[in-house]
Specification:
mainly beta, Immunoglobulin-like, seven-stranded mixed β-sheet, six-stranded mixed β-sheet, 4 helices, 35 strands, globular, disordered N terminus
């Protein structure tokens, strides 16, 4: 059984630097990020038990009341219970970060009232100079990330920029999405990076008749006390244990291109210790970081299989050596500790594969497992050969449209400092270009002209990752900017003059399930196929957004609305 308890924490201010990456013969400026100061002296690892988020308590069947509040929480024993955070109160459990886990049954509707009970002053520095943030008052907008829901419930800033202090966002979720490790987090316009950094996020787990969460279950995988959610984030702290978000000098201001903390925080605990038994466990892993990609390895290399991704189960397990997960992504993983009796393996963040480009500062230590001498319950001892995941079966031809979406970074021509990031050379409030028809399948190509990998997330939909290509970035960029200046669509990157070349190995097996977030690497274009269905009872038109899930990027124009039309 898992033994936990717990808390959380973070470290100091940061600086901005600039990198230049050569792609396809062209110098592409890429923003390195605000990196935090070292942790306070004497901050020890593995001294905090891994906490498990509380299970949310409904006020009536399938009805929840959440209030977002400021509280203090113990993140590490060195700090004591003094760290100010923002969390959720469901009326039963104390206000906490992460928030209580909402657990629902597929196709059984759930209603939630999200009330902004925050103080009038933000916990972190606010930059009102961002193009779509003109207030420093904390406004909130809860997004159900991975939900198959109407625009009114989606929590996206294309339909509502956010709710002021004292206001309530009332939503109903039909839960038509598959059983999957989805999550909720704040998505207020121009303030997402700060609100999530302060603590506004939590798990939203969908179940069905196979994936019951109990043990035994219809999947043949661990459940009950042996299914553990892990929300990974990186944070930085001041010497007295307060959250620290970097503030840069003018003219850049408090917006930094990407935030990287120097300390791993798991489920709101700093570099925690999880006491477990020598048997199989199931972990629902969420990358809730602002910008950090994680590549998780476990000391001693216990057998590890990915059984599901963002949008539910795979059709067969995939054996892994490490778990690569971008901001916004989820991984459903089974790990076998049965041969590690009495051992204490450390979970480390390994170097990223060469194709994943991130200016992240180094952060190695994540957490530790302490494996006991015996198991209370043996549980499953083998991984199932097949899983009841829904096959990815979108057509390979006959698309209603093919859309070429450029991922771009805008730099100050005099200083080279980052100004904002854009999609198709456009800002968030520019007129809408993408209008897929309900029920049609389209092919989208995320064409990365910048220097960093961007985790691209689409609201409403789930999609199939098809392939990645390298291409001539300089030639394509020139033609794309000319087309944009003439208000014409971007050219196809598959034109032979851009020298497209299929990336070796294509799409990894663990990406072959249904996804809602995909890694788009620099110097490459990433092809996805997506069908624009709407939930039962919902009629077109409906408005959603797609964006980079690096929160500093989406807050500063790397987000665009799209309409699903009749």
């Amino acid at each position: 059984m898992f033994k936990g308890g717990g808390i959380f924490r973070r470290t100091g201010p940061g600086v901005l630097s600039l990198a230049v990456l050569m792609l396809g013969g062209m110098a592409v400026a890429g923003v390195m990020s605000g990196s935090a100061a070292p942790p306070p002296p004497g901050l020890s690892a593995f001294s905090t038990p891994l906490p498990l988020p509380a299970k949310a308590t409904p006020v009536a069947p399938n009805q929840y009341e959440f209030t977002m509040e400021e509280t203090t929480q113990q993140l590490h024993p060195s700090f004591g219970p003094v760290t100010k955070v923002w969390g959720y109160n469901d009326g039963t459990h104390p206000t906490s970060y992460p928030g209580p886990t909402i657990e629902v049954q597929k196709d059984t509707a759930t209603s939630v009232n999200w009330t902004n009970g925050l103080p009038e002053d933000h916990l972190l520095p606010v930059d009102t100079r961002l193009t779509h943030n003109n207030t420093d008052e904390p406004h909130t907008l809860t997004h159900f990330h991975g939900g198959f829901i109407a625009e009114a419930a989606d929590g996206n800033p294309a339909t509502n920029p956010g709710y002021a202090v004292g206001a309530t966002q009332a939503v109903s979720y039909g839960n038509a999405q598959p059983a999957a490790p989805t999550w909720y987090h704040d998505h207020a316009l121009g303030m997402t990076r700060l609100n999530v950094m302060a603590g506004l996020a939590g798990f939203y787990i969908s179940r069905d008749s196979n994936d019951t969460g109990a043990e035994p279950n219809g999947l043949g995988v661990p459940g009950g006390d042996y299914e553990i959610p892990l929300a990974l984030q990186d944070r930085s702290f001041t010497a007295d244990g307060q959250l620290s978000y970097p503030v840069d000098p003018p003219p850049t201001g408090p917006w930094v291109p990407e935030f990287f903390g120097d300390t791993a925080v798991v489920n709101g605990a700093v570099m925690p210790l999880a006491e477990i038994e020598p048997r199989m466990y199931r972990f629902r892993i969420l990358n809730g970081s602002n910008a950090r990609f994680w590549n998780l390895e476990i000391q001693g290399s216990p057998p590890m299989w990915q059984i599901g991704t963002d949008q539910g189960l795979l059709t067969a397990p995939v054996r892994l050596k490490s778990i690569l997960i971008a901001p916004g992504e989820r991984a459903d993983v089974v790990i076998d500790f049965s041969r590690m009796k009495g051992q204490s393996p450390v979970v480390r963040n390994a170097s990223l594969p060469p194709s994943i480009v991130s200016p992240a500062t180094r952060l190695t230590t994540v957490m530790r497992f302490k494996v006991g001498a015996s198991a209370t319950d043996q549980g499953p001892t083998t991984i199932p050969a097949t899983l009841p995941g829904e096959p990815v079966d979108l057509p390979q031809t006959g698309f209603a449209a093919r859309r070429n979406i450029t991922l771009e970074e805008v730099l100050d021509p005099d200083t080279g400092a980052p100004v904002r990031l854009e999609l198709n050379g456009k800002m968030f409030h520019d007129p809408i270009d993408e209008t897929p028809a309900e029920g049609t399948t389209e092919e989208w190509r995320f064409i990365n002209l910048s220097a960093d990998t961007h985790p691209m997330h689409m609201h409403l939909t789930r999609f199939q990752v098809v392939s990645r290509y390298t291409f001539d970035v300089a030639a394509y960029t020139a033609d794309a900017k000319a087309a944009q200046a003439a208000d014409q669509p971007n050219p196809t990157p598959l034109d032979p003059k851009y020298k497209p070349k299929l990336v070796t190995k294509g799409v990894a097996p663990e990406e072959r399930g249904w996804k809602d977030t995909v890694r788009a690497n620099p110097g490459q274009f990433t092809i996805i196929r997506v069908k624009f269905d709407l939930p039962p009872g919902v009629t077109a038109p409906q408005r959603y957004v797609f964006h980079c899930h690096i929160l500093e990027h989406e807050d500063n124009d790397m987000m665009r609305p799209y309409d699903v039309v009749p």
